[in-house]
From TrEMBL, chains A, B:
It comes from the Eukaryota. This is GST N-terminal domain-containing protein. PROSITE patterns: GST_NTER (PS50404). It comes from Sphagnurus paluster. InterPro entries: Glutathione-S-Trfase_C_sf (IPR036282), Glutathione_S-Trfase_N (IPR004045), GST_UstS-like_C (IPR054416), Thioredoxin-like_sf (IPR036249). Gene3D superfamilies: 1.20.1050.10, Glutaredoxin. Pfam families: GST_C_7, GST_N_2. The lineage of its organism: Eukaryota, Fungi, Dikarya, Basidiomycota, Agaricomycotina. Residues 1-71 form the GST N-terminal domain.
Amino acid sequence: MSNGLPYKTVWVEYPDIEALCKKIGAPPTATKPDGSSFYTLPVIFDPTTNTAVSDSILIAEYLDKTYPDTPKLLPVGTRPLQRAFLDAYNPISSPVFQFALPATHKILRPASQPYFRLHREKLFGKTFEELVPTGAARDVEWAKVKDGFNVVDGWLQASKEDGPYALGQTPGFVDFFIGARLTWFRLVFGEDSEEWKDITSWNEGRWAAFAEGLKKYEAVDL
Amino acid sequence: MSNGLPYKTVWVEYPDIEALCKKIGAPPTATKPDGSSFYTLPVIFDPTTNTAVSDSILIAEYLDKTYPDTPKLLPVGTRPLQRAFLDAYNPISSPVFQFALPATHKILRPASQPYFRLHREKLFGKTFEELVPTGAARDVEWAKVKDGFNVVDGWLQASKEDGPYALGQTPGFVDFFIGARLTWFRLVFGEDSEEWKDITSWNEGRWAAFAEGLKKYEAVDL
């Protein structure tokens, strides 16, 4: 990646996340129903300051603050707006989970599959086989996915003249949040899937262009 | 108002809105269930360009574009974010309506009261007397109002170092949107009401300061 900070990506299997976070001092991001700590990725460890940071938006805040001369993900004048954006985005983008989580399970490494299945199925109270809609229900639920994309497209149309991103010409945190979702869908559904072909055809090809524009920021060993 | 555009405020009674909009060529902002046009305020008429504009965010866009040397409400890099902010704000701020609409009815001029009652009661399927919560339900519903303020407070805390507003030091469109709500509550509940005292005590006095900071922009003959 150009004009940013040097970094090395470490891929971690689900059952190893908690032990790694504890080892490097990355704090938990939530509390489980039983009261114990819940550790999630992404996490960074910055050897320059000997600091571990958890939670993507806190990581972005940390990097913006610690390295003020690099590109900003949360520029002054957009921080509360980007938090509100995520609160608006999350519910309207949730119908895709019933499709994407079972598809994700299939492409995970064997070491991560049982953990992923156990915890996600508990969350939804359904097996992955029950979760993914079929027949007529599939069309209804997939239409909800499309509705969500339409809402975000409506927001982005407000900046037609400014640039392709929520923050205009230069992507901000919420743009990478959307971009990460698109990368997720491309990887788990597959480039040649009906799902990915649908998504990239919606909103006059906005999502294909959006994903393409952010590709240069992807970790090279993805 | 300083360093802005000269303007004159015209107050319009509810039954006169549609005829006035048609007269000055201000387009409707929505369609009624029966298919006919629905006209709402605010509306501006700009004699310099002979243009009428309806809908507050479209008015802000028009003014930003037509008068580029005046303060911007929708700066480049914030437009989709501000639209998403409104979509996140609207559902979490809706529990206040059951309190504020009946209170509004009481302070309207007689010419507006029957229209306001008819249309709002139709929307909720309840009379104003049924809509406003009493007894134990009041505490439950008022707590929901407070929950909504807490969410917005959480967003604004992300800019503690940047300034008091969603856009930082200088208020943007969404800040005036929140400010207009606060003015509404102050006027219909009353400065000495329990409701206004509650609101201005929440979130370490954020809303009292927020309203005070925006007071200089209020129409002087309010």
